[in-house]
Amino acid sequence: MLRKTLGYIAFLLLLFLGNSSGVFAPQALAVSSDGQSGTLEKMAVSTGTVTMDLDLNRLNGIASDPPGVKRDMLRFQVSPNSFFTVLVFNNMLRGPDAGSIGLIPGNTANLPAALQTSLGQLAIDKLASDASFELALRDTKTGFVFFNIDRNQYDYDSAAHLFTVNGGRLLISTEFANKLGRPSDAGANVGEITISATTYPSAGASGDDFRTTVQPANRAGATL
Hints:
- With 224 residues, the chain is mostly beta strands.
- The protein has one domain (39-209).
- 14% of the residues lie in helices and 42% in strands.
- It contains 4 helices and 11 strands.
- Strands 1, 2, 3, 4, 5, 6, 7, 8, 9, 10 and 11 form an 11-stranded antiparallel beta sheet that branches.
- The longest helix is centred in the first third of the chain and has 17 residues, at 2-18.
- The chain is elongated and about 55 Å long.
- 30% of the residues are buried.
């Protein structure tokens, strides 16, 4: 048991030291209980698309019956200046690590004035591990949070190096609800977000690809 515990601590230490951003996301880390060996990779988002399927009536405070029937889609390209990483262990996604995905708008819609003004400077941020949500949509220049993203499902295609996020609910943030003059709308679900992005091995501080081989702690002949 002690050997397994020490092996798990060593695994976490490798992840922490390999994270050049200095952000530690414990919910993204995993190691098998039997001390499975394997390759850990940190993959960075490269190119891709983001779509937001919005209930504009709900977002603009207009009653609709039934709600959510009419939706408009906002389309974005992933900015080449983005730096958002995910952890992959033995070709299996462990979760987002850190960073921000910049968005380049491809179209527009009848948005609230504040969101329309910020449309060209939005980003999806990975939040701290102790935050109420894992992802949020914010203005990169002001830091203003428009939506928290909830119940999103992650997936990773190791053959295509494709990272996807599906079914993320767009919840109006408290500050956006106040800006709209509708504080009671904080937490209201006004749509869904989808992310599809190719990834490449992230470079560490030395400029080399971040890739670490983890050996089992309870292998034959191991000594304390």
